[in-house]
Amino acid sequence: MSGRWVIHLPVTAPDLLRARIFARTAARVLARLSARVEPGGVTVSAEDQQDVHHRVFCDRPLPGGRCARPVDHTAPCTRRVPRLNRP
Fold first, then answer.
1. Whole-angstrom Cα distance, residue 45 to residue 59?
2. pLDDT (tens digit per residue) in 50-87
3. 42 with 57: CB under 8 angstroms?
4. Other C-beta atoms within 10 Å of 24: how many?
5. Dihedral over alpha carbons 5, 33, 38, 50 (to 10 degrees)
6. pTM
7. CB 40 within 8 A of CB 27
8. Burial classification of residue 69, based on how many CB atoms lie within 10 Å of its CB (0-12 exposed, 13-18 middle, 19 or more buried)
9. DSSP of the chain
10. Are strands 61-62 and 65-66 parallel, antiparallel or unpaired?
């Protein structure tokens, strides 16, 4: 055994899009709390098809890290997602 344990935390969402959004948000928040969180490995699945996983982050290898954008992004990969300018 590797000495590492993986936490499986079932959370429901009404569709794939909202499941990915919730999973991205949760992963980013948890990653700020602990360096042990691996956001790139986050996946979602339908409740009745838990063997079919849908990736949440692109996670493409980049110099100095991995892509942090959503899996279906159209902009160039980046290690950091730009923050929205809010008033």
1. 18
2. 899 999 999 999 988 889 899 999 999 998 655 554 44
3. yes
4. 20
5. 70
6. 0.76
7. no
8. buried
9. --S----------SSHHHHHHHHHHHHHHHHHH-TT--GGG-EEEETTEEEEEEESB---EETTEE--SBTT--SPP-SSPPPPP--
10. antiparallel
